[in-house]
Amino acid sequence: MIRPLAGQRAGDQQDNEARLIARAKAGDAAAFERLSGAYADRLFMLLLRLLGDRGEAEDVAQEVMLRAWRAIGSFKSRSSYFTWLYRIAVNEANRALERRARRPASVPIGPDTLQLPAASSDEPANRAENRELRAALVRALDELPPDLRIAVVLRDVEGLSTQDAADVVGVSQAAFKSRLHQARLRVRAAVGDAALAGSGA
Amino acid sequence: MPDDHRWAQLHLSHYVDGELSPRGRRRLERHARDCPDCGRAIRAMRALVYAIQGLGGPAGVRAPATIFDRVRLAGGARSGPPERV
Asked: Least CA distance to A119: which residue of chain B?
């Protein structure tokens, strides 16, 4: 059997997605679930990173899907569906963070949300250092204002391109780059160059 | 040159991300060769981005099964009960 070329598979996926979008726009909720379900894990991870609280991330994720379902009729295929869904998620996360800021006792990002166990190939001696650096980074990201935190999470943690990240946030690429740079400078100042020097980069 | 220094400090992220034009890259590198502060800043920025990229997240996080609950409530009113996917 001849395996399809990667480009062909991507093309099939796009066709499939376009069909699901058309059905969802026509009011087919099952098609909407299949369409959005493909991004659900990534979207939930993004919310967890931005909000740091599993319960809140779950609540916001449900709201994101509801808003996307209600707005699917206005989705224009000029942007990718993924970017569009992420934009709704970032807006909803921002609203949740604003609500939180108005509450007297704010909930900080949980210590476990951004941390991965050290890669198994890490030397034990490096691991402790990495753990400390990770903890310092998580603290520094937690202390950033939401717009700066979102910039770092989208670009550096999620690995979105500058263009996609700028689209998600709804600003120009130049504005996004400037925001990202400010965010990184603040994180660098908070973590300190000495800690970064041992990070193995 | 103070102008180059200010410009370099503003464009460190662009440089580290490979998003400067070839001309901009040459300008920054020329300046950083003679400016210990900018040289240090480039190394720190590279290490920082590398470290943040390595943060990842908890492995194997899955979206909760409840993620479409509100859609199902709303969707039922539009098109009958949605089939499970």
From this structure: B54
Whole-structure pTM value: 0.79
- Do A21 and A35 touch, CB atoms closer than 8 A? yes
Alpha carbon of A162 to those of A13, A27, A154, A155, A167: distances in Å? 24, 33, 9, 7, 8
Let me know: does A31 contact B80? Beta carbons within 8 Å: no
Give the DSSP H or E segment for B21.
none
Q: At residue A1, does pLDDT exceed 90? A: no
Nearest to B48 among A70, A114, A187 (CB): A187
Residue of B nearest to A59 (CA): B67
Q: Is A172 on the interface with B (CB under 8 A)?
A: no
Q: What contacts A156, CB < 8 A, 6 or more positions away?
A: A180, A184, B49, B52, B53
Q: Are B38 and B32 in contact (CB under 8 A)?
A: yes
Alpha helices in chain A (DSSP H): 6-25, 29-37, 40-51, 54-71, 81-102, 124-143, 146-152, 162-169, 173-191, 193-197
B13 near A CB under 8 A? yes
Of B12, B19, B78, the CB nearest to A162: B19
Shortest CA gap B9–chain A (Å):
10
pLDDT digits (tens, 9 = 90+) for A92-111: 999 998 888 777 654 455 44
Evaluate whether A10 touches A23 at the Cβ level (below 8 Å).
no
